[in-house]
Amino acid sequence: MITPDDVKLLRRAIGIAAQAVTLGDAPYGSLLAGPDGTVLIEAHNTVRRDNDIAAHPELKLARWAARELDPGTAARTTLYTSCRPCGMCAGGLVRSGLGRVVYALSTEQLVELNPESGAWPTVTHEGPALFDEARVPIEAYYRS
Prior knowledge:
Layout: H1 4-22, E1 29-33, E2 39-44, H2 47-50, H3 57-68, H4 71-74, E3 78-83, H5 87-96, E4 100-105, H6 107-113, H7 131-142
Parallel strand pairs: 3-4
Antiparallel strand pairs: 1-2, 1-3
């Protein structure tokens, strides 16, 4: 359930996205709030500027949280973001241990506003293969 405090912080994330545009960057912004609602860190999309496909603000904040916060604190944080996180960012958010995400635009709404956002080609996946070989480093790591 989105609260009035969530709305305030979500508006701030949208403001970060608007500021990104003035800097020549893509219009996506995020912030991470601690358990008490204090903003811990903010970021915007710098994919073009950094020539880095992973420079999405959600992923930047997830990586920061994984490095800087203990798991208990991370689990009580909320990420506020201008658009629903993409698959890459969603995976990073899960791995970071963040507790909650609140977003403004859905993926469908984003694609409606910018059809190119939904035009990613699919990547062919083939496997599994070479189980007996691939399991050796996995077992060595987890059994040590």
